[in-house]
Design a protein that fits this description.
By secondary structure, this protein is α/β, with parallel strands linked by helices. Helix content is 46%, strand content 12%. It is globular. The termini are far apart. The chain binds 6-O-phosphono-beta-D-fructofuranose.
Length: 531
Amino acid sequence: MFTKLRRHLETVEDRLFENLLDSVRAQEFMASTGHMRLDYSKTNIDFKGRTLLIDLLDQVGLAEKRDAMFHGTAINETEGRAVLHTALRNLDGGPIIINGTDVMPVVLATLDRMDKFAADVRSGAFRGQGGAITDIINIGIGGSDLGPAMGVLALAPYHNGPRCHFVSNADPADIANVLRICDPATTLVIVASKTFTTIETMTNARTAKTWMGESVSDPAEQFVALSTSADGTAAFGISPSRVFGFEDWVGGRYSIWGPIGLSMMIAIGSDAFRVFLRGGQDMDQHFCTADWSQNLPALLALTGIWHNQICGYATRAILPYDNNLSRLPAYFQQLEMESNGKSVGMDGEDLLVHSGPVVWGEPGTNGQHAFYQLIHQGTRVVPCEFLVAARGHDDDLHHQHQLLVANCLAQSEALMKGRDLDEAREKVADRFEGKELERQASHRVFPGNRPSVTIAYSKLDPFMLGQILALYEHRVFVEGVILGINSYDQWGVELGKELATALQPIIEGGDASGKDGSTAALVDYLQKCGV
Ligand code: F6P
């Protein structure tokens, strides 16, 4: 499938793509939703390459597969499930039928219940034993943590509800640090777990319940559950009136749009949360209607396929020049790597190409002073994805925001242009000469020709956050379809969980002799150290 693209790469890989970049290209190799602009002109994709890439979308039947997802077909074939997180933001869309039933009435009724509960918490109508709720602790992990934790931080300027804390790790330090600063009498604990079986979450939830029970007469009254498991939440003692359910067609890493987003809704209020949903829904409509050549999720996916599967670049950096998006790289890491980190295709056969890239990143400008050295001068090429807003939230500090934007644009320019040996010599010619001049100059050469895409938008408000998240969700879908994999299961997390369960009694003093030599020796060492 990639043969033509690989042949095309062979003919263009040595050129400097900067030389392609006239003002026509700048307009031709960008696309816009009206709310955000995707610029992919600083890549080595040319007209022919783009045509070949877009051809892929028709070859794999993307339009039919997209429609199948939106209409509730069980495209998660290994788990026999539909993939319908888009229904959670289908605020004024039509019915979505699964097994003969329209799911929308239940989705909208749950959203209304969330609205009412969030409003009660925010107004003080829902109280703890000691008064109005001052603190919320969301206990969850993976998609039941990363989404709301990222979202609450992203929308910090809109946060006017109680303080929010997020506990995810099995490490007792995580929950201990939070419990230390909360008053149990005015704290609401949200146990967020799709399955309500995840060991880290259930362990932390029990710890929180014990902590609250030490000073509150009926701790379960200050607990809420977000889950698909009515039995599990009942067994934990949480009243059905404070359980916000969802269905198995919402994957964990796609769940921020529904009940798992409750902490975010309480933080910013339900009106702002609905604006966030509208941002996602607007991107859905764009994805479903825009021509591929103007379709942001499709184009972003194609840049990913070009860089990873065709050029062979193994990683991708997510670099938000928007400090409130500090947790976005971690959120996208789960979204992309849990979705597309697979080795077999939908048919169970080994993939003949690499699947998804390693996704990582940090906000700019912090990353510039940490790992950009490797991005600019290391031997590996790292395609970069910059996100930048035209405006921040603090008008009196706009000059500082302009500095941020200048840094963002400078980085993509530097990656593309680099600095050749002549320029490097000029930089040091006043201090060195002869061999030492050559040696010093060579350290100051930047190879350049390093690709990046930039996603630019007006301001990070709830609508824009919804747009950004839905953009990347659909990008993952498109890449998954091209690769022929199931982006919606996650069997790769199972083995470690099973082995951890088996190891726990050994760590607690059991016999490690059945384990491999390394594991047994580590158990022995840690036991001697007091585990
Ligand atoms: O172990 C992986 C995973 O299943 C993720 O896909 C999910 O987001 C996370 O664990 C948490 O699962 P749950 O919401 O069921 O506790």
